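Re: export button greyed out
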Amino acid sequence: MQFNPCMKHKLIRDSARHFAETELAPIAAEIDKNATFPVAVIEKMKKLNYFGLQAPKEFGGAALDSVSAAIVVEELSRVCAAVGLCVTVHNGVAVFPFLQFGNKEQNEKYLPRLARGEMIGAFSLTEANAGSDAGSVETTAVKEGGDYVLNGTKIFVTNGGVCDLALIFALTNTDRQQLQSSVFIVESSYEGFLRGELEDLCGMRANPVSSLFLENCRVPEENILGKLGMGMKIGMTTLDNGRIGVAAQALGIAQGAFEAAVKYAKERQQFKKPIASLQTIQNYIADMATEQAAARLLLYRACELKDAGQPYGCEAAMAKLYCSTVASKTTSLAVQIHGGYGYSKEYDVERYFRDAKVTEIYEGTSEIQRMVIARAVLAKLTL
Amino acid sequence: MENKKKSIWVFGDYRNYYQNRVTLQLISKAMDLAKAIDAEVCALVFGHEIDEWIMEYTAHGADRILAIDDPALKSYSTEQYLAIMEALVKERDPEIILIGATDFGREFAPRLAKRLQTGLSADCVGLEITPEGLLVQIAPSFGGNMLAEIVTEHHRPQMATVRPGTFKEIPHDNSRKAQVERLPLMKGLPAPRVRLIEYERCAEKEHSIENAQVIVCGGRGMGNKNNFAKLHELARILGGGVGATRPVVYAGWADHDALVGQAGKHIKPKILFSFGISGAIQHTAGLGEADFIVAINKNPQATMMKMADVAMVADAGDVLNSLIKELKKRIRE
Amino acid sequence: MLKLVVCIKQVPMVTELPWDEKTGTLRRDLAPGMMNPACKHALEAALQIKEKYSAHITVITMGPPTAKEVLYEALAMGADGTLLICDKILAGSDTYMTSWILAQAIRKHCANVDLILCGAFTADSETAQVGPQLAESLNLPAVAYVEKIEMNGRILRVRRIVDNFRETMEMECPALVTVSIENYLPRYVGLGGLQSAFGENQIQVIDATALGIAAADVKKQGSRTKVRRVFLRKTQKENEYFTGVAVNVVNEFLNKYERKISTVIGKSIEGKERTRGK
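Workaround output, generated via the alternate export path:
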């Protein structure tokens, strides 16, 4: 465990920050307001490996370690959480399952296109009646000759409106006794792959979140990721990794709001002095700074465990739980420090405040994270 | 060469005479310094058909002019000037050499100092003489709001480039006399290795903010590119130009042409509006000749606010919008 | 293949470092380092030359061990080789000394260099002296503030705008240019490039001894200038503060200075009916 960022991590951060501040900062408020996906900037990001953060070099990825990848997501989210979301979902839950479970043919076919961003990926587990409870999924995949025919509706799919490839979680055996799920690689060009309207959400509005409809969508058998019946395993493993990504995203949002609040507190004059000189505001600043530092350590610990090949599910859940809690609290305080202005769209903290909330919800709510953590703790033989 | 009277040399940078009178300003300051160390002020003019400058420098206070008038010197040439200066300095041993901190001066002076193996302070904003007769070169330092007093103790000549606008020229006086030494171009100087292929005066640069009466400058406090762009509207109403700080230029909100400061334009407006600028010396270095400064910043402690004649403590964007609205109203009525 | 050398410097990330009035030093600890922007433009110019004419780029910097960072960044952007000159006895070098040391390093490690590129000035000191002085140390033809570089065999054609003149110049390699920030907008650093820079490359570090620089040289080539005193520049002048809501502040100001403004802009804004400020 290293407590000081190494030179590489600093440079990764500087580079991502430079890009985000130059390219995303000028448009972040606007794309949030109009709920538009910033295609031109995304194209630039593809060329700079933002869509292949951890994919190996031979597939056109950047082959970053997990801390580096988290830093990139932090820095994008610090400026524009919706783009941070696009990147973390693509890398964390669309590319990652290939790296973990994809066979040679699947990886050779899809990884280069995913890693270069020629295909933007999505991961769809959630349905109207199934979220964290993956067992309640109702989408089905029925074998017909060499294909599987998929039917069902996926909701709240991040990147749904723009994805070129979705990993669809579907039941391959609906028999209650032998319930079996698998993950299908579904290209958006397949017949029967339909997108719903974009969701009108509270935050992260520039990300095209939508429903996906599978209507007799034929998927070749070789597009079963890994093996038939590996759905649950892939789902759980992917969520562990996705949580690291959401934690990084939450932390980035917190950082952005924190910086805005500190800057404002130093500038804003009341009672003939900057409000930063008031003890109440200083207490807020101290708490925000401390919580972010703690959150960052939790996050990087999960990353390092993952890279070391050790179990990290519990740590990823802790990082996700804590980072998102900190994000919500920090963005709320940032609005508070801004007073009335903070409640106005004139100031970025209003957007951060809306963006932060969902980090406590998606990729498993805070309640689910607590469940994961508690189970892990209770399963230990020694504490 | 008569006697060993000390000499303060001022390099004649005449190419931009109408925009930039730094040589005259330096002659004026050199006259002050010369009194303190009992020296003469000697202006150097190298070029072709240079009588106009010889007369100007005489009328503005030089005691002596060293002039080399030769077709080979028709255009500025760092290498040739270096060779000439090296020869002249060896022969005459000046005590001090002052050079205007124009683009040319800042390219030429460092090479000259290196060749003469002496020290050089860049972009000075003050010059003084110590009781021991040393030149104190006051130069911006550490990239912040600091000034450093620099001396060259053991090497001669003492050299400085000086920011245009730092000193005031003395009035033109045709009755002044100087000893004009017209020297031949030295024989055997190495041929210049840098060849000037084309050059032209950039008209658009001459109409740049350097000559504007009203300038509206913006800094990072404008928040974003769109807000910054509104400065052009105010400038249009006021018939002025738009200037920018370096962070703003780097952020792509403004062109490099708009850069005001040490590495950019030195401006001399009658009224300067400064929106959301903290006042780092890299920027304020270019404001020495601004007459009346109106600064707008949320932070009353900002250096720019302290430098200003009028300081408005408010959001730069809000003030900009109000000002545009009010001025339009008042001018239209 | 052309051999290019780019000299870069690590500077503090903020231009306005706070000054600790108690200790009389700069709070360098408050700002991390970065590659000086003009140096980055110089590197970009070199990279574009490399793409067009094929070249090998060596990037050189002088500084503490942490200055390796800017060399890794240069590698990530596409440089081929690096050199860090790092030695305590060289700390505090002025431009005179720095240019001499860089010249030593180039003579020793990049003897056949065709073109040296430097940033036109640094963000932390802005003296703009090292480039020209390096050219002088190596006795090279040089042009400062260059915006565009073209090569025709061994002939370099450069363009620049200085003191209101647009100039085109030619010189033969080997030569030196300092690159302005007008053009050659630096490329973004790709993440894969960064990962590779750290994975495959070693930064070459050399000290004074390796460069054949002895303490006596440091003394002889050492600073020509001496700083007697550093002080805060006086900025406070008698001024007038307006505070309050923007629209009121603006009206108060316009009412008070209407004559002055009218005179300067040559349009009257005076004597119109309006709400009087206090």
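The two ends of chain C are 73 Å apart (CA to CA). The button fix ships in the next patch.
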